[in-house]
Specification:
about 500 residues, Rossmann fold, 6-stranded mixed sheet, 17 helices, 22 strands, about 30% helix
Length: about 500
């Protein structure tokens, strides 16, 4: 058995009197991949920030043993020098700098006179890339030229340049395509074979099953258990994470579907960088009362562009004819859309869904702030009552409604964004990747909410890259491929193969 590399014992961490970690344990052996699982807000990222000294020694309780000695690191620089390197969910790269400059930022090779030795830096970066079988990446190119998946690999190369013995990956595939994910998992397996240990944090249990040697589960800041991956199933992990059994990941419920309430005609979106290219190519569809309409397709197919145009926030030139309850409406801005009863939860909550420095409650009421204003004054008591009700409805884990929303986990931020878009009581709700970066328990809650809403007569359009989610939740599925509507299927026995075939098959006139 490999030697023990890391032992965290009885770790505690408080924020403003609220205990975020309560006696957490974690053991990692050399060359081992440990999957760290828990719901949003369970304390996974906080735990790793303790380990990597984002929260320095003295600000938390318990002990950390690293290679047989107690670790009392006061800074990230100290943990990195010891061989512990964390790659955060939000990548820490400078897009305008080259790949090599990013890898050695702050540690640049120096030559005569103390000047940066660019030739040596590029040579070292290229050798590192070749060693990781990433020779296709030009280390002299700015990072901005590369995809999200390639940037994630560059972050790993940066970590390994620091001689990492333990690599911490926090939700590394949350924004990656399937092929990019496979590349990343292959790289981690290769690192394991070379003796590099890894703590792999992910809500995607299929990735944990594919790559982890063992799994540690935490819940509400407390240690639940640890097991070898060979001795545990995904259903066991889910039960440990949420503290209860889940009979189905998709709680599909019968609900009435009525008449057509929303119609989009001839939606065309032009590429902002090249107006001769259509990102959405003359798409038309209808939506019925109480219906969940799933929109599926491959990455880059035009799904987000389509719903952005409907909500009035597409950044390039576009045209769209929109009818609500049979009447034409004009939607050129999100404010106009909300006024007509059309709301959208955006794909990128960090960029478009939240105001990070505002409180959780203030984010929730941003879309309805006028409702609380009279004579230039805000009725703060009524606003707070509604905030408390929204937090309770969505089970948002927050120490206080006044806490900055940036302090919440990604899943709880997502719940707050959904609450914000439900506040205006829309007739049509668009959800673009509603469960991205959300744990299995929170997904279940969002699905239950969606079925409650359609039972009340709301209509929902859901864009999702997760095929099981589309098939598990939707009443009907639109398939988009290269900006075209390539399929409109009733979800009765619909299979992933049928959806994928439609997505990759050009329409006859476009062949």
């Amino acid at each position: 058995m490999a030697e023990t590399l890391l032992e965290m014992r009885g770790i505690t961490k408080d924020f403003a009197g609220v205990r975020a970690l309560n006696g957490i344990n974690l053991t990692v052996r050399a060359g081992e991949v440990v999957g760290l699982c828990g719901e949003n807000g369970a304390g996974k990222s906080t735990m790793m920030k303790v380990l990597s000294a984002v929260y320095p020694y003295g600000t938390w309780g318990g002990t950390i043993q690293w290679q047989g000695r107690e670790l009392r690191a006061a800074s990230i620089r100290e943990t990195e020098a010891a061989g512990i390197v964390i790659i955060h969910q939000e990548l820490m790269l400078v897009p305008q700098l080259s790949v090599a400059e990013n890898i050695f930022l702050g540690r640049e090779p120096r030559g005569f006179g103390g000047f940066i030795d660019f030739e040596a830096m590029y040579a070292k970066a290229a050798a590192l890339m070749a060693d990781l079988k990433m020779s296709h990446i030009n280390v002299a190119q700015p990072v901005a030229h590369y995809s999200g998946g390639e940037r994630q690999l560059i972050e790993i190369a940066k970590a390994l340049s620091k001689n990492a013995k333990l690599l911490i990956l926090d939700e590394p595939t949350s924004s990656l395509t399937r092929s990019e994910t496979e590349t990343l998992l292959g790289l981690v397996k290769g690192l394991k074979a070379r003796g590099t240990a890894c703590v792999y944090i992910s809500h995607k249990l299929e990735e944990i099953e594919a790559i982890a040697d063992s799994v540690t589960v935490i819940r509400d800041g407390a240690y639940v258990g640890h097991a070898a991956m060979a001795d545990i199933k995904a259903s066991d992990i889910i039960r440990m994470m949420i503290g209860r059994e889940m009979t189905s990941l998709f709680p599909r419920e019968a609900h009435p579907i009525g008449e057509v309430v929303f119609e989009a005609r001839n939606v065309i979106c032009l590429d902002p960088q090249n107006v001769n290219r259509r990102r959405v190519d003359d798409v038309s569809f209808q939506l019925r009362r109480g219906e969940i309409l799933g929109i599926a397709g491959l990455v880059g197919a035009g799904r987000t562009e389509l719903v952005s145009a409907l909500f009035g926030c597409y950044r390039g030139p576009y045209t769209a004819e929109i009818l609500l309850e049979g009447k034409p409406i004009t939607v050129r801005t999100p404010k106009e859309a909300v006024r007509h009863g059309l709301c959208m939860v955006p794909e990128d909550r960090k960029a478009h869904g939240i105001v990070p420095d505002l409180a959780v409650g203030q984010n929730i009421t941003l879309s309805t702030l006028d409702d609380y204003t009279s004579g230039g004054l805000i009725d703060e008591n009524r606003e707070l009552r509604d905030i408390d009700a929204a937090i309770a409805q969505m089970r948002i884990k927050t120490a206080s409604p006044m806490l900055a929303i940036a302090r919440l986990s990604g899943g709880n931020q997502q719940k707050a964004v959904i609450s914000k878009m439900l506040a205006p009581k829309p007739r049509v709700l668009i959800l673009d990747e509603p469960t991205r970066g959300v744990d299995v328990g929170a997904k279940y809650e969002i699905y239950k909410l969606m079925f409650d809403l359609v039972k009340q007569g709301m209509s929902i359009i859901m864009v999702s890259s997760e095929m099981p989610e589309v098939l598990g939740i939707s009443d009907r599925v639109l398939v988009i491929g290269e900006g075209q509507l390539r399929g409109d299927f009733i979800n009765d026995g619909l299979t992933q193969e049928q959806v994928l075939t439609a997505a990759i098959t050009p329409l006859p006139h476009a062949a």
